[in-house]
Design a protein that fits this description.
2% strand; 248 residues
């Protein structure tokens, strides 16, 4: 099927290209970024509300929140890097094994690839033809994609995941700290708890909607999911802070 063509005064033809963008193209960094921002918002807001609910002073609340931000950002970066590096190690090992199998028995690997396409619905003759053509171009890439499920858009990138997680954690954690710092200096602790909690719920709802938008999903369910767990964490932290504050 042809695409519309245009012709300029010199007779050159220009084909219009249709470019599609999919949410899976962002999966490498989107998951880490949303997780980091969500964790930064919830953990820092929970820490601030917990310390404030314990009737601690304004400076104590801000110091605790800042310490939580720094520790959390480094922890998120290290955790993402280690976990995604493990995935990358497994992918490299699988690719090395597949490369060795292609070198030692290419005929068997060709039949294996054809069998995958038959299982997906192609008739045997066409499956062998497709397998042969793809293998002639890049056999390892064909096996990585169709046998191992390793694709360029989803391949493990530890540094990217660590940077996205740490940066988004910091961005999320800064928001409740700004609200806490902007709270009236002589206001009772309950005022700071209320301001931080209410603003965090709004931020979480916005984060859920943003994540859904970037992933190409409907915002309602994502927003409700993020907000529910955030409210639960804030309530638990404020409750623990109030308990220890009264007990102290």
């Amino acid at each position: 099927m042809g695409l519309p063509l245009s012709q300029d005064g010199e007779g050159a033809r220009v084909a219009k290209r249709h470019v599609e963008r999919h949410g899976t193209e962002r999966v490498g960094w989107l998951r880490a970024a949303i997780l980091g921002a969500n964790d930064g918002l919830i953990s820092t807001a929970a820490l601030v509300t917990g310390v404030a609910a314990a009737a601690q002073g304004r400076s104590d609340v801000l110091i605790a929140g800042a310490a939580g931000l720094v520790a959390g950002a480094f922890s998120m970066a290290a955790g993402e890097y280690v976990s995604v590096s493990s995935q990358a190690d497994a992918e490299r090992a699988d690719l090395a094994r597949e490369r060795a199998e292609l070198a030692s028995d290419p005929a068997y690997e060709l039949e294996e690839l054809a069998a995958i396409y038959v299982a997906r619905g192609l008739d045997p003759g066409l499956a062998r033809q497709v397998a042969a053509q793809l293998s002639a171009k890049d056999a390892l890439a064909a096996h990585a994609r169709d046998e191992l499920g390793i694709m360029e858009s989803t391949v493990a990138r530890p540094i990217q995941a660590a940077a996205a997680s740490a940066g988004s954690f910091t961005a999320g954690a800064v928001l409740p700290l700004i609200v806490a710092a902007a709270a009236p200096a002589l206001a009772p602790p309950a005022t700071m708890v209320g301001l931080v909690s209410a603003s965090t719920v709004v931020f979480l709802a916005g984060l859920g909607a943003l994540g859904a938008h970037l992933g190409g999903a409907k915002p309602g369910r994502a927003t409700a999911r993020v907000t529910f767990w955030g409210v639960l964490a804030l309530a638990a932290s404020a409750g623990v802070g109030a308990l220890f504050g009264v007990a102290g």
